[in-house]
Design goal:
The complex is a heterodimer of chains A (438) and B (458). Chain A is 74% helix and 0% strand. Chain A is built from 24 helices and no strands. Chain A is globular and about 70 Å long. Helix content of chain B is 53%, strand content 16%. The chains are: A mainly alpha (438), B alpha+beta (458).
């Protein structure tokens, strides 16, 4: 179905937002540290996960199997999952379409295979259909309640829907069932959300230890680890992880984008531009394009900056034409850049309703603030900070709200908190925070 | 049971996706195709560059796509070796087109013919495409021999599986190709052969502009270059035919028209009136949407309008259904009153119903024609980009007429069937119930359409 194809772009965009999607495909190696996991890994091996073969070769062998026997349900299901991993590795969204097709074939052959439902669930997550993902994850779970993977799908959807308590419970169950890269990464994300940074870093390092020979999940985990460092102002440590990630998996857009942000924080604008351009060339995610525009703006190249901002408009049109909802992302961009503020507020409201997560609350709070509705903004900012997340951007937004409400001392305290945590948290807003903190 | 079937058919029709001319691979892909052609004793290459919407937008923002400059740059990064030594590929000719893509954006298709050296005796040739090395997209290499030249060995196939990037395979078992180099050993002929042909601009507009459309037969008409003599009437006849055929695809309120005409004691005149309304609405709808696409695309995307049009169409049907039902109820009460012997108000029902009936007829006709067929829209946009606006307009009118002809035909069948049904006395009961049942069917269809349409507009 041709008009589904662009959805892939949104899929990749989602990878930025629902960043912990990573490693959903790759399950732990045979030497997983617990007895329970060992019994599970036999099944993984049968399923082809623990093979040394690269994903590309796995895809080829599954394709060959299915050419010979098109009724092989198990192979269709695995091919569906393998295509999702290929999409992550290559950035080519047409793999997502193929994944959906392969999983549908598997479903028709056997409507009671839990693997198919969880595969469709992770696809729905990638497409920002969080409620659908939750439903599919639960279907998968009902069919086989002891599969760790299903808890990952359910928990990921719950996070985006703002149901943190049950999400964290699911991540814990997942880790108990099968300690693996994907389980540890999710635990790390949960710890980060509740503000336990050191513990989050520990968990992400465990995830890194659990990485198999497949390069992309390892690179992805390094990027997540680096982002944890970055969010706490440890730019050099972050840079090291991003460089390693890009070495592990060359031309990795996620690593290049993260490197750009880090280089900018370290004051190396030219290098930052170079990295971000490569990231945009690989996968033109709106947030990458926005960062590139901001970099040009800060570097005093307004023409080039405007060109990037115009490109975001085109990408948005394409996503909308495909029925993909990116309201929250677009609202965030518009609010940050002072564009169409009332329209952005409307978008933020819609986005927050669809995704009542702390990120949804924060974007709505920020949109309200920039529209001068600071009283209402305060409510959503409180919601955004309800988990105790240590996020300089959210602190900054709260500071702006307090300032707008005339509570200058409280505002200054939030600005200082944001800067103490991550002095270069944003190209555009960190300088503002510095000015107001004084 | 039958009503269920009809309902299911209506639901299916509405669920069918709007055909948009999306790039068949992702909207940010850069797709490359290299073809080495040994024609007799001469070596040629055909290079095809297919930029999806986003790279096209980027290229435009960075100063536009200059075919000659692109051809030179691409030639510089297309590395050819003959017998292990680098050989030059010189761009000779190129064809450039900007087929319409999604969201009112364009895509780019550039075909380049490159001339290589003359081959003498058995030669090993190798080619490597270094263009856009880091960019995601389909990469395909093909090596062919013709005019007496023979391939001894080749690492590449002799036939393109994507038809030179015109038809990307949709096979679930086919990964996007990532081939950017090939080696071959060839036995050339002793005399030269003609250079391989590039696609003509007409054919290009034809093939690429309509790649994702449901009725390519109709859309291709616009790309035909010779417009004169006998061609126009034939083209119009074909457009009419495609319109008639298109009306048979799900949707277009066929079941509603049938149900309405059966229930409303329609006459052939009614059926004709319905057809005329459908034609007019559809033609106006396509032109209006085309206008929106061209002038207001900064604010509104045609893809976003479709859900609203679906809703309007559905609400119209609901309105007609309610109105018919109320009319029936009133009639039924009158009938009961008459039966009880109250003869005191004697106005002519027929006249009263007539004006109302015309309005309902209009409502049904508009609901059937208001959703512009995506193919017609593509034809209009292609006509504008090919500077054949007048021709495009007549084609669309012919298409709409075909659409209406099918609907009218169905209406006439319905009218005829009802009359036969009425003549055969099946016990007055069924005949008396028929109008009310038809009103209920129309209403149910309308509600089903509304329920389907509503979630898409929020």
């Amino acid at each position: 179905m041709p008009n589904k194809l662009l959805i892939g772009l949104a899929v990749l965009l989602a990878a930025g937002f629902a960043a912990f999607l990573g490693g959903v495909f790759v399950e732990p190696p045979a030497q997983a540290p617990s007895a329970l996991a060992a019994s599970q890994s036999a099944e993984d091996f049968k399923a082809g996960f623990a093979l040394d073969a690269s994903t590309a070769r796995l895809v080829e062998s599954l394709q060959a199997t299915l050419e010979a026997n098109p009724k092989d349900e198990q192979s269709w299901a695995l091919l569906g999952l393998a295509y999702q991993q290929r999409a992550r590795e290559t950035g080519d969204p047409s793999y997502y379409t193929k994944s959906g097709g392969a999983l549908d074939r598997a479903l028709r052959l056997d409507p009671s295979d839990s693997l198919v439902y969880s595969g469709l669930g992770s696809l729905a997550l990638s497409r920002h259909r969080f409620a659908l993902a939750l439903k599919l994850g639960r279907q998968a779970h009902a069919l086989s309640p002891t599969i760790a993977r299903n808890y990952g799908v359910i928990g990921d959807a719950e996070i985006e829907l703002g149901r943190y308590r049950s999400a964290f419970r699911d991540f814990d169950t997942m880790t108990r069932l099968q300690p693996s890269l994907s389980a540890y990464a999710r635990v790390s994300y949960g710890r980060e959300l509740i503000g336990h940074t050191a513990a989050a870093i520990t968990a992400m390092k465990l995830a890194l230890d659990a990485a198999t020979d497949t390069a992309e999940p390892a690179a992805w985990t390094r990027v997540q680890l680096g982002k944890l460092y970055f969010n706490h102002g440890r730019y050099r440590a972050a840079e090291r992880e991003f460089l390693l990630a890009n070495e592990t998996f060359p031309n990795y857009a996620y690593a290049l984008d993260a490197l750009a942000t880090t280089e900018a924080a370290l004051g190396r604008l030219r290098r930052a531009v170079g990295y971000e351009r490569r990231a945009v060339d690989l996968i033109p995610l709106p947030q990458y394009v926005a960062t590139l525009g901001d970099l040009y703006r800060v570097a005093g190249r307004p023409l080039l900056a405007r060109r990037q901002y115009a490109l975001i408009g085109a990408i948005e049109r394409l996503l909308r034409a495909n029925g993909v909802r990116v309201d929250l992302e677009i609202a965030q961009f518009d609010v940050d850049h002072g564009l169409r503020l009332t329209h952005a507020l409307a978008l933020a409201r819609i986005g927050q309703r669809q995704r009542p997560s702390i990120d949804g609350d924060d974007v709505l709070a920020w949109a309200l603030t920039r529209n001068g509705r600071c009283g209402a903004a305060l409510h959503y900012s409180q919601l955004a900070l309800r988990l105790g997340t240590q996020d300089a951007v959210k602190f900054f937004h709260r500071g702006m709200i307090d300032r707008c409400l005339g509570r200058h001392a409280a505002g200054r305290a939030w600005f200082r908190r944001a800067l103490a945590l991550n002095p270069r948290f944003s190209l555009l807003w960190a300088p503002v925070a510095r000015r107001y903190a004084a | 049971m039958r009503r269920l079937l009809v309902l299911a058919a209506a639901a299916l029709a509405l669920a069918a996706p709007v055909a948009a001319t999306a790039h068949p691979l992702g909207n940010f892909t850069i797709n490359r195709y290299t073809e080495l052609d040994v024609q007799g004793d001469r070596l040629y290459a055909v290079y095809v560059l297919d930029l999806a919407e986003i790279p096209t937008f980027q290229a435009r923002a960075a100063g536009g796509v200059n075919g000659a400059a692109y051809a030179r740059r691409i030639a510089a990064h297309l590395h050819l070796t003959v017998g292990g030594r680098p050989a030059v590929l010189r761009p000779v000719r190129h064809e450039l087109a900007f087929p319409p893509g999604q969201g009112g954006l364009e895509t780019t298709r550039l075909e380049i013919l490159l001339a290589g050296p003359k081959l003498e005796g058995r030669s090993s040739v190798a080619v490597r495409d270094g263009n856009y090395a880091d960019r995601i997209g389909w990469r395909e290499v093909v090596v062919r021999g013709a005019d007496g030249a023979r391939l001894v060995r080749s690492s590449a196939p002799a036939r393109s599986i994507s038809d030179r990037l015109l038809a990307y395979p949709k096979n679930l078992l086919q990964s996007p190709l990532e081939v950017s180099s090939a080696q071959a050993v060839v036995d050339p002929a002793t005399a030269g052969g003609p250079p391989p042909a590039l696609i003509s601009p007409q054919l290009l507009a034809d093939r690429v502009g309509v790649r994702a459309v449901a009725d390519p037969g109709f859309a291709r008409l616009i790309a035909r270059s010779s417009v004169g003599g006998w061609f126009l009437p034939i083209a119009l006849a074909i457009a009419f035919f495609w319109g008639a055929a298109h009306a048979l695809s799900p949707g277009h309120g066929k079941s509603i028209i049938t149900a309405y005409l059966v229930g409303a004691r329609g006459t052939p005149r009614h059926a004709l009136l319905l057809g005329a309304t459908v034609t007019a609405t559809h033609t106006i709808g396509v032109f209006a949407l085309g206008l929106v696409t061209l002038s207001l695309s900064q604010f509104i995307l045609p893809e976003e309008l479709y859900p609203w049009l679906n809703l309007v169409s559905a609400l119209l049907v609901v309105g007609v259904g309610v109105s018919v039902l109320r009319w029936r109820l009133r009639e039924w009460r009158h009938a009961r009153a008459h039966a009880r012997g109250h003869h005191h108000h004697h106005h002519d029902h027929r006249d009263h119903d007539h004006s109302l009936g015309a309005r309902r007829l209009l409502g049904i006709g508009i609901s059937g024609g208001i959703i512009p067929c995506p193919t017609a829209l593509v034809v209009l946009l292609a006509a504008i980009s090919l500077h054949r606006v007048g021709y495009g307009l007549v084609l669309i009118v012919a298409f709409s007429l075909g659409l209406a002809a099918t609907m009218t035909g169905l209406g006439l069948v319905a009218v005829g069937a009802r009359r036969v049904f009425a003549r055969v006395d099946l016990g007055g009961h069924a005949v008396r119930l028929l109008p009310a049942a038809s009103a209920l069917v129309v209403l149910a269809l309308g509600i089903a359409m509304t329920v389907r349409a509503f979630p898409h507009v929020t």
